[in-house]
Design brief:
The chain crosses the membrane at residues 20-39, 99-121, 127-145, 157-178, 198-219, 240-261, 286-307, 339-358, 364-390, 410-427, 439-459. Its main location: membrane. It is found in: Membrane. InterPro entries: AA-permease/SLC12A_dom (IPR004841), Amino_acid_permease_CS (IPR004840), APC_YAT (IPR050524). With 481 residues, the chain is mainly α. It has a single domain (13-461), classed as Amino acid/polyamine transporter I, CATH 1.20.1740.10. It has 18 helices and 2 strands. The protein has helices at residues 15-24, 29-71, 77-85, 88-117, 126-143, 145-174, 198-213, 218-222, 229-258, 278-285, 291-323, 341-360, 362-371, 375-396, 413-427, 431-436, 439-445, 448-463, and strands spanning 3-4, 334-335. A two-stranded antiparallel ribbon has the order 1-2. α5 (126-143) crosses α6. The radius of gyration is 22 Å and the shape is globular.
């Protein structure tokens, strides 16, 4: 019998998989393409400040998630933690919110894959490439969790190697060893640099940086299928912090040193702007003629990696929602290989329908993409709240902190800092529209907030839930999967 009623996923992800999944989730088109627009907007100093700030916040979020995930390693973690430690209504809203976010992101990524492929094969219709990408991603996720882990490992490795080569070439270019003359650090004081436009523009770049780091929280979703979560999650978190600092901060420093912030080439922010990716520009400046084709290939692996992670994350969240009674029971079934196959099929169908809406109903597609815009930040807020409640309940019920396998550093500063910065970034999404009272733009930008609130109050009113008192928080370690 292919379908079974049992609810077991298989613990087959190794530490190297988790490290690369968390790292790969944060290195994508946000770094390869959009980092240029961040430098162009706020200048080199403003961009660096935004990425350092968000990088530190993401680290604290990962330590919060790590403490809970080593204590209770389950698939679809943040929804489960919000349900157990805060309020079932919050768990319900966070789970559906996160699933929706990644199902839509999957559709965006397969559309982007087609744009990237048309760089080489402009005469082939884009939908052909998107369909091939979707079938490929579905197959990888349907085989086994290990096939997902291995694919993500190698795709992420390509991105990491690219960044390392870029950093080496960039440093040689700054000193004039490659590409002719040395630029030194002159671009950091060019015209209005290093800080351009003051606090409002730096705040707007925090938003760009925040989107670049979305996906790092995947490490919490993978906890339920890790072979040794108590070892691999802390190890992955420690590595991710240093790698984010090394890759993001150094990469932006190199781009800012070589290309002045006034360059029009830095304005590209989507995958269709491969020819003017800051990475491509730096490689060309160093005299590497094939830069555009090479970077195109890297961006393709990056987009496929994001789609692969998106398919995995949304499938596991739907599976988790089913186990908690928040989604139909059929989505909680796994096959012999431990894959929640119905949840995978359900997510694939939504991804496909969203993609088709981009072909036949452009306005519906833009609406869906806008609606998923802030959902990642909402998930981060939920992680911070859940961790504050978890730790308070843990102490209130007479437990000793030495019982925890992993301790989040600087508690409670970490979750409070992450909570505050997430709120600032969410509010600061589109301050310009508030200033001009452009209600249509405000509606599009902040659409995910009312959707989340509707989900939350629907469940709260229907099931009359309340915030769980600290002494009644369920800290039992029975696995929910």
């Amino acid at each position: 019998m292919a379908e079974q009623e049992h609810h077991e996923v298989k613990r087959e992800l190794k530490t190297r998989h988790l490290s690369m999944i968390a790292l790969g989730g944060s290195i994508g088109t946000g770094l390869f393409v959009a980092s240029g627009s961040a430098i162009s907007t706020a200048g080199p100093g403003g961009a660096l400040m935004a990425y350092v700030g968000i990088g530190i916040m993401v680290y604290f979020l990962m330590t919060s998630l790590g403490e809970m995930a080593t204590y209770l390693p389950v698939s679809g973690s943040f929804s489960t933690y919000a349900t157990k430690f805060v309020d079932p209504a919050l768990g319900f809203a966070m789970g559906w919110n996160y699933w929706f976010n990644w199902a839509i992101t999957l559709a965006v990524d397969i559309s982007t894959a087609a744009i990237v492929m048309q760089f080489w094969l402009p005469s082939v219709p884009g939908w052909v490439f998107s369909l091939v990408a979707l079938v490929l991603i579905f197959t990888i996720n349907a085989l086994s969790v290990r096939s997902f882990g291995e694919t993500e490992y190698w795709l992420s490795l390509i991105k990491v190697v690219t960044v390392l080569i870029f950093l080496a070439v960039g440093v040689l270019t700054i000193f004039g060893i490659m590409g002719g003359h040395a630029t030194g650090l002159s671009n950091f004081t060019y015209k209005k640099a290093p800080f351009v436009g003051g606090i409002p523009t730096i705040l707007s770049v925090f938003v760009v940086a925040g989107f670049s780091f979305q996906g790092t929280e995947l490490i919490g979703i993978t906890a339920g299928e890790s072979e040794t979560p108590e070892k691999s999650i802390p190890a992955a978190i420690k590595q991710v912090f240093w790698r984010i600092l090394l890759f993001y901060i150094l990469a932006i420093f190199v781009i800012a040193a070589i290309i002045p912030y006034t360059s029009k080439d830095l304005l590209g922010s989507s995958a269709s702007d491969i020819a003017i990716s800051p990475f491509t520009l730096v490689f060309k400046r160093a005299g590497l003629a094939a830069a555009a084709s090479v970077m195109n290939a890297v961006i393709l692996t990056s987009v496929l990696s994001a789609a692969n992670s998106g398919m995995y994350a949304s499938t596991r969240m739907l599976y988790s929602l089913s186990l908690q009674g928040y989604a139909p029971k059929t989505f909680g079934r796994t096959n012999r290989r431990g894959i929640p196959i119905m949840a995978l099929l359900g997510t694939t169908v939504i991804g496909l329908l969203t993609f088709l809406s981009s072909l036949f109903g452009e306005r519906i597609y833009i609406f869906l993409v806008s609606a998923s815009g802030l959902t990642g930040f909402i998930a981060w807020l939920g992680i911070a709240i859940s961790h504050l409640r978890f730790r308070k309940a843990f102490v209130a019920q007479g437990h000793d902190l030495s019982e925890l396998r992993y301790h989040a550093k600087w508690f409670p500063f970490g979750p409070w800092f992450a909570f505050a910065l997430c709120l600032i970034v969410i509010v600061g999404q589109d301050l310009h529209s508030f200033a001009t009272l452009d209600w249509q733009a405000i509606g599009v930008t902040y659409m995910s907030i009312p959707l989340f609130i509707i989900l939350y109050f629907y469940y709260k009113i229907r099931y009359k839930t309340h915030m769980i008192p600290l002494d009644q928080v369920d800290l039992s370690k029975e696995h929910l999967d």
